[in-house]
Design brief:
about 90 residues; single chain
């Protein structure tokens, strides 16, 4: 999936292979975000900024250290970008 390729470029997900299903990818992303919350919050903030996750939603999820919510925010934002590009590619 395109979302996986885009997010794998931001997060060091070297375990991701082409045949990884979405749920498995999501679990790997959650694990990576959990590690970043623990060891490198500044890098996580940079990644989420580059992905363009809404800052208030990011701050709220980070405050509660909710890695699942952070992963879902990143996935949703990438999906929005893909849909936007597909909608306006034909214009």
């Amino acid at each position: 999936m395109l979302e996986q390729e885009i997010l794998a470029a931001y997060f060091p997900l070297d375990k991701v292979v082409e045949n990884t299903d979405f749920e498995q990818f999501r679990r790997l992303l959650i694990q990576e975000i959990t590690a970043l919350i623990t060891y490198d919050i500044a890098h996580l903030a940079q990644i989420m900024y580059r992905i363009d996750v809404a800052e208030d939603a990011f701050q709220e999820a980070l405050y509660t250290q909710d890695a699942v919510r952070l992963a879902d925010l990143a996935i949703q934002r990438v999906q929005q970008k893909i849909a936007f590009r597909q909608n306006y590619k034909t214009i």
